[in-house]
Design a protein that fits this description.
The structure holds 2 protein chains of 2 kinds. By secondary structure, chain A is an alpha/beta fold. Chain A is about 35% helix and about 25% strand. Chain A has 2 domains: about 180 residues, HUPs (Rossmann fold), CATH 3.40.50; about 30 residues, no CATH class. Chain B has a 7-stranded parallel β-sheet, with helices on both faces. The chains are: A alpha/beta, B alpha/beta.
Chain lengths: ~230, ~325
């Protein structure tokens, strides 16, 4: 089993690379918090074409919640010159839609979520953001942070030469102490998972059997009306 | 410190979202359990008149924040005003809907106030006085109970997962004095789909088409959705083929829907698709392949050609609705 970059983070890496190509310059830095699996994910992004990686690998981060992760990431980013941060819209494990917004909040920079298209010109970024029933177009000065939405791009695959080159690209590994962070302050979660269970599995219901398609349709509508009472 | 519950309602284009009434109703239920007040707040421009309607869903106090800069949603302006209101009112819980705007502003508030956030909640209860929310994780494969250990606890509620109850509250109206600097971000335009279209995540009925549609022509699915007053969805493969926009996608990497009735037409039923619709009350599958996995989890199935069967279902529904009028 190989660990993958979450799909939304993959959109983020791809968009960063495209922006670098369009602007004909810049550095794409991948920042992550985690252990060996996160290092593997950074290597994949480096193989796609990113320039360097920073991994915060500290056993103390294992109990971090989204806010703790965001504190760590924003501390790392503060030490770098940057114009733009691109983040996945949500983690595909806890699905809390929190880290991107929180990093922007801690850095006090403009935040736009669920972006399907962006343009950068004259120190400003214009983002097309998906909302219920349409798209909102918003413009912010850089530096800014946006999160990705499906539809933004089609991530490239890492080429074999890319994989070879990635092995030589810099990957800094830091601990919380290196960042000057007190583990007790960032690690204590405000929220605890107290139990997990599988949702009740839906069971196979009735296959409607009737002589003709018309009879099947009529029987379905009767059942939805009289038995399930949903129409 | 008060222990009240604050419900944030979303108002746009002259109406409150249906999901906001769900948030108010759940807020009222929780306030009754705790024996506290339900505060409702709404942000916008010229909203005082509409805001009084929130009393019908149990609000004891209604805080209306009016400002021209609050006309269109922006995280910066809304977070500032809501954070101020929360700091002033010190509620134990802040509830809003898990819409794009609700999830956004809840995340910003969580960071600004350093308060715990549980998003996309399906149920809420208390254990030893602390709020515990049930929410999906790992693409809906797991349901987790999470306990919020600090106040205010911020919760976003999945649309269609909570019942709407009309209960009159005192509804005392208060105007919040908004002071805003011009935000860094500006809203350039809103590109909205054709008006009258039912929003997928809030629809009571969703009819989706998949690979079995065979092309861009979704007219049979659209006609059935229209007969039921519902919305049209699509599977990932239909979106990947370019037959439908990404905004119609139901599933793990698309939208999560919880309608009363979900009808899957020509969808084989990949696990990722179920992640987006498994909390629907009733699932119907129509597929010509009797072995399609979708039948193993649908409440009702029809094995047949969707292009033949779906128009007949539409006809039967029109007939039923015509008769009952």
């Amino acid at each position: 089993m190989s660990w993958i970059i979450s799909p939304y983070d993959e959109f983020a890496v791809e968009e960063a690379l495209r922006i670098k190509e369009m602007q004909k310059g810049g550095t794409v830095t991948i920042v992550s918090v985690g252990g060996a699996k996160a290092a593997e994910a950074i290597r994949t992004a480096l193989a796609m074409g990113a320039d360097k990686g920073i991994l915060v690998n500290d056993p103390a981060t294992a109990s971090c919640d989204g806010l703790g992760i965001a504190r760590i990431v924003s501390t790392v980013v503060k030490s770098l010159p940057f114009d733009l941060i691109i983040a996945g819209q949500r983690a595909v494990d806890d699905e809390n839609f929190l880290v991107g917004a929180a990093v922007a909040e801690f850095l006090k920079i403009p935040f736009t979520s669920l972006v399907i298209r962006q343009e950068i010109a004259d120190g400003k970024i214009t983002c097309h953001r998906t909302i219920e029933g349409g798209t909102a177009v918003v413009s912010s000065p850089l530096p800014a942070l946006f999160t990705t939405q499906r539809g933004l791009n089609e991530p490239r695959y890492a080429s074999l030469p890319g994989v070879m080159k990635a092995k030589k690209k810099p990957l800094d590994v830091k601990t919380l102490a290196d960042l000057g962070l007190d583990p007790a302050a960032v690690v204590k979660p405000l929220m605890q998972v107290i139990s997990m269970r599988f949702p009740e599995k839906r069971k196979a219901g009735k296959i409607i059997d009737a002589a003709t398609p018309r009879a099947k349709a009529a029987e379905l509508v009767r059942m939805l009306h009289e038995e399930a009472k949903v129409i | 410190m008060s222990q009240d519950i604050l419900a944030i309602a979303e108002y746009a284009n002259g109406v409150f979202r249906k999901a906001s009434y769900e948030v108010l109703s759940e807020g009222r239920r929780l306030a009754d359990i705790l024996g506290v007040k339900l505060l409702a707040t709404v942000l916008g421009n010229d909203i005082q008149g509409a805001a009084s309607r929130l009393a019908e869903y149990g609000a004891d106090r209604i805080i209306a924040a009016e400002h021209p800069l609050l006309k269109d949603y922006l995280p910066e302006t809304c977070t500032q005003v809501l954070a101020e209101i929360i700091q002033k009112e010190t509620p134990a819980l802040v509830l809003t809907s898990a819409t794009t705007q609700g999830k956004d502003v809840a995340a910003c508030l969580s960071a600004r106030l350093y308060a715990p956030l549980a998003t996309d909640c399906l149920a809420i209860h208390f254990e030893d006085g602390k709020p515990v929310a049930t929410r999906p994780m790992y693409g809906g494969k797991v349901l987790a109970d999470v306990r919020l250990d600090a106040t205010p606890g911020i919760l976003t509620l999945r649309p269609n997962a909570f019942a709407i109850r009309k209960i009159a509250g005192a509804g005392t109206m208060e105007l919040y004095p908004v002071a805003l600097e011009p935000p860094q971000t500006s809203c350039i335009e809103m590109q909205m789909d054709a008006s009258g279209k039912v929003e997928l995540t809030e629809a009571d009925v969703v009819v989706s088409g998949g690979r079995g549609m065979g092309g861009k022509d979704f007219s049979v699915v659209e006609a059935l959705a229209s007969a039921l007053g519902g919305a049209v969805g699509a599977s990932r493969s239909a979106v990947d083929e370019g037959w439908r926009p990404v905004s119609d996608q139901v599933g793990q990497t698309g939208k999560v829907v919880s309608p009363s009735l979900y009808i899957a037409c020509g969808i084989s039923g990949a696990i990722q698709h179920f992640a987006g619709m498994q909390t629907s009350k009733v699932i119907v599958a129509i597929n010509k392949d009797p072995e399609a996995p979708v039948f193993s989890r649908a409440d009702y199935g029809i094995v047949g050609d969707l292009f033949e069967v779906v128009p007949l279902i539409t006809e039967e529904i029109r007939h039923l609705k015509g008769d009952s009028q």
